[in-house]
Amino acid sequence: MFISEKEIEIRYAETDQMGVVYHANYLIWMEIGRTNLIKDLGFTYAGLEKEGYLSPVIDLSIQYKAAMKYGQTATVRTWVESHGKLRTVYGYEILHEDQTVAATATSEHVVVKKENFRPISLRKIDPVWDAKYVEIQRGTD
């Protein structure tokens, strides 16, 4: 299984009145991690959009384990949990500097045509990208 890692320095603006990272910022970090995974594999989400496709989130699950605070550095670990004909599930771990798990999550996506939002298989629009996801999905080591 291929895992991409991206460090994020936590900014003051990402915290709430309690001094901890506001929960919605984890979703932004997940997007950063997903984009970094795609880049690490040699593809670009911007390229997918340029070709007339989008990959919206259709399901999201996140479990918060240990609060993060301003001044810390978060590491976002991202991988392909599963990849099928139409759906891709990404897995995430967001870690403290000491490797304590701050959050775990999954997000499920489909690829759709931009003009009508009809789902389309990644295999039809980019067979190389599709094959890479099949190769690296969890459980295929």
Helix content: 25-40%
What is the CATH C level class, in words? Alpha Beta
Which class of secondary structure composition applies to the elements? alpha+beta
Radius of gyration: 16 Å
Domains, number: 1
Mean pLDDT: 96
Largest sheet, in brief, is: 5 strands, antiparallel
Distance between the termini: 6 Å
User: Element order, helices and strands?
Assistant: EHHEEEEEEHH
CATH homologous superfamily heading: Hotdog Thioesterase
CATH architecture, by name, is: Roll
InterPro entries: 4-hydroxybenzoyl-CoA_TE (IPR050563), HotDog_dom_sf (IPR029069), YbgC/YbaW (IPR006684)
GO molecular function, one term: hydrolase activity
EC number: 3.1.2.-
Protein name: Thioesterase family protein
